[in-house]
Amino acid sequence: MHTTDLAATCDAIVTYLTRCQDFTPGQYYGAFWSEKAYHGPLLDWHAGGSHHPRGAGSGGLGLWLAGQERDDDDLRRRAEAAFDWVVTRQHPSGGYFEIQNNERPSDWECTGLEECSTIEVSFVIHGLASALLAGLPPKASYLECLQRAGHWYLSIEWPPGSGIFPHHERSPYDTLNANLHTGEALAAVFTALREVYGRTVNIFYQGARRTIRHTLTLQWPNGCFPYRANDGITINYTSLVVWCLLNTVETLPEAHYRGDVAPAEDVRRALERAGKFLSGCVAADGTLLWEGNETSTAKHNMWTYALTANVLRRIGGEANVAAAERLLGYALSQRSASGLLPMRDEGEEITECAYMQADMLLFLRQCG
Questions:
Q1: CA quadruple 121, 127, 130, 131: dihedral positive or negative?
Q2: Separation between Cα atoms, residue 60 and residue 302, nearest integer Å
Q3: What would the pLDDT profile of 128-148 be if each residue is shown by its tens digit?
Q4: Residues 6+ apart with CB under 8 A from 320
Q5: Which is it for strands 50-51 and 33-34: parallel, antiparallel or unpaired?
Q6: Which end of the chain has fewer CB atoms at under 10 Å, N or C?
């Protein structure tokens, strides 16, 4: 176990998030400033920073949970400010733009049109719904944000009723992590509305059910969940699909929903196969075996170490837990002088990417 180093790393991320939270009067009040960022198409950490909606989702949740644990009113106030900011950035459609370098929204399909991102929305909703379920004051603005996001997801399902939710508007691909991000977010919206606001909106649950059942059929025999249907072996996105699946099952409010969202035996087999694939991608020294197992731009990201350790521990089993311990041991050995994990397992040391640090805080918290 790496309890001391793990706790110190989580504390360092909380301190960093309080340092980079922007309280300058104006449009970014309450957001987190990410000095470094890594987005397509530039794929350059130094191409310009931004205030990311997804960073407010993960950062707000991380600060809220830390504030609850420490009974720290300042951290709770900061978390609330982050959520108050992010609900103001929601597009009228209910989506969120993927903010890339220099505050610019993505344009993956090169249409020049507005383009909301399933991934951006999902990290916002994961943070907001989870914080509400953990005691965040249930404001009307949060209720509206959740409902609008839920309806936005359902509006982009294509073909209707298929369980396929694109990575971003007008994307033509069946992208597995987008599907499961949607499933997790719709389940979180359903649960938060039901448990916090007393509203049961079954169309959101049914959307989650459709996409989870569809996506489970796309897992490869070796346990990998490819980036797109039948295309792209990946450690990173296998772990992300599993993270979303685990979150969904754990978040749904009653045994009926948890058992109905997908057949329990299908979920068990999917997790078992994914664990075998992922644990087999961890070397004896705790490094990830990227070559031959990763085709995405996440290759060499430390974010993947934290995420994969998280899901292997949660899947459980001796081999999976041992692999998670090796991953954590290696990742924590790479901590910078600031106590933060670097963004990469090779090359220049870069730490000040707020949205990735906030995500890693959430992943690491569950490894303790």
A1: negative
A2: 21
A3: 999 999 999 999 999 999 999
A4: 275, 278, 279, 312, 313
A5: antiparallel
A6: N
CA 232 centroid distance within chain: 20
| Contact by Cβ (8 Å): 82, 56 | yes
How does pLDDT run across 278-288, given as a tens digit for each residue? 999 999 999 99
Distance CA 317, CA 325 (A): 12
Is pTM beyond 0.85 here? yes
How much is the pLDDT for 42? 80
- For residue 169, the tally of other CB atoms under 10 A from its CB is 20
Looking at residue 40, its pLDDT comes to 76
Calpha distance 344→331 (Å, rounded) = 10
Q: Grade residue 6 by pLDDT with cuts at 50, 70 and 90.
A: very high
Orientation of helix 3-20 relative to helix 73-88, angle to 10°: 60
> Residues 166-179: pLDDT tens digits?
999 999 999 999 99
Q: Look up residue 350 and give its amino acid.
A: I
The answer to whether the CB of 20 falls within 8 A of the CB of 82 is no
Residue 41: is the preceding peptide bond cis (ω within 30°)?
yes
Which 3 state secondary structure label does DSSP give 168?
strand
Report the C-alpha gap between 45 and 343 in whole angstroms. Answer: 10
Torsion region of 121: left, alpha or beta (phi above 0 gives left; psi -120 to 50 gives alpha): alpha
Please give the Cα distance from 50 to 53 (Å, whole number).
Answer: 10
Which residues lie closer than 8 Å to 41 by C-beta, 6 or more apart? none
